[in-house]
């Protein structure tokens, strides 16, 4: 078991270099923020459209099938189960729904009969009015499907589509950004976008340095977890004889050892930075990437403006 390779989410794909890799990290970050904000107060048509855009971007970027199949397959399965469970769940409206129009013309005539008081017959000079024919509409039905204990209403189906689409967009857009952007590019792009905050004395460099170290620390955490799990598996522990109390005691010991190893790794990283003179981020800055907008970046910005235009035109929630 190799957690560094089998973990389906949050990994960076170094090869091959796709057109998503070559985009400026600032442009990709703005695209990510757009995906994470445009589905707010949007209709289901727009939320489903965001899912389609993410899938098309993955396929057109020619990301290897083994990568997107591993990452997208489990997520699509999860979203499908969320869609199914939310669709058959109660919609939260505990009322009985009745048709607003009468079922037939006879009910309308019986309800509109005059009272027992005599009325004057209409004059022969004035032609009598023709009876108005009412048309009952049976096309609309609040209950989409009903079979046995399963009942799908329009509200539950709407909530199911909304929830599953938002879940896919939230997870996969972030994962696609991490898949095609190196950690150093992420921090460099965020630092560039946060430069205006220096006017309010916000420690931009310290924040980006902390973010860089945290992104670099994730593989170390996975490595320590992997080593501890392997050490437990190689000891061939009989879990049935230990029982729940014994198994919990072993896993608490493993968790304590993991915490000690991570603190030791953090201390080693801090000592290595101090030895190399990184005592202040403002005085010892390492420029990882030279950020510069190219032609493909301007094309991506144009498509981003088009995306927001379509969102304002057809994506508003009614």
From TrEMBL:
The keyword Transcription regulation does not apply. It comes from Iningainema tapete BLCC-T55. The chain crosses the membrane at residues 29-60, 72-89, 159-179, 298-314. Keywords: Membrane, Transmembrane, Transmembrane helix. It is a multi-pass membrane protein. PANTHER family: PROTEIN ABCI12, CHLOROPLASTIC. Residues 110-126 have a biased composition (Low complexity). It is found in: Membrane. InterPro entries: ABC/ECF_trnsptr_transmembrane. It comes from the Bacteria. The lineage of its organism: Bacteria, Bacillati, Cyanobacteriota, Cyanophyceae, Nostocales. Residues 105-134 are annotated as: Disordered. This is CbiQ family ECF transporter T component. GO terms for cellular component: plasma membrane.
């Amino acid at each position: 078991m190799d957690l560094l390779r089998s973990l389906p989410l949050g990994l960076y794909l170094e090869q091959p270099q796709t057109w998503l890799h070559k985009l400026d990290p600032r442009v990709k970050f703005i695209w990510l923020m757009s995906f994470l904000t445009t589905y707010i107060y949007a209709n289901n048509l727009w939320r489903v459209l965001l899912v389609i855009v993410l899938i098309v971007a993955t396929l057109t970027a020619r990301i290897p099938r083994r990568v997107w199949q591993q990452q997208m397959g489990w997520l699509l399965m999860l979203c499908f189960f969320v869609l199914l469970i939310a669709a058959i769940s109660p919609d939260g409206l505990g009322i009985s729904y009745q048709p607003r129009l009468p079922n037939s013309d006879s009910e309308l005539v019986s309800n509109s009969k005059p009272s027992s008081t005599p009325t004057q017959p209409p004059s022969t000079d004035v032609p009598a009015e023709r009876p108005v024919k009412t048309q009952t509409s049976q096309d609309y039905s609040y209950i989409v499907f009903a079979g046995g204990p399963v009942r799908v209403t329009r509200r539950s189906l709407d909530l199911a589509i909304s929830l599953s689409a938002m879940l896919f967009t939230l997870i996969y857009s972030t994962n696609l950004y991490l898949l095609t952007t190196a950690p150093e590019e992420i921090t460099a792009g965020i630092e560039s976008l946060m430069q205006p905050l220096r006017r309010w004395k916000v420690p931009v460099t310290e924040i980006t340095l902390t973010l860089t170290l945290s992104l670099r620390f994730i593989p170390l955490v996975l490595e320590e977890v992997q080593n501890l799990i392997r050490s437990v598996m190689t000891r061939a522990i009989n879990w049935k004889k230990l029982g729940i109390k014994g198994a919990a005691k072993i896993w608490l010991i493993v968790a304590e050892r993991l915490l000690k190893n991570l603190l030791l790794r953090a201390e080693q990283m801090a000592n290595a930075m101090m030895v190399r003179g990184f005592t202040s981020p403002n005085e010892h800055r390492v420029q990882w990437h030279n950020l510069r907008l190219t032609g493909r970046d301007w094309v991506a910005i144009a498509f981003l403006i088009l995306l927001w235009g379509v969102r304002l035109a057809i994506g508003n929630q009614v």
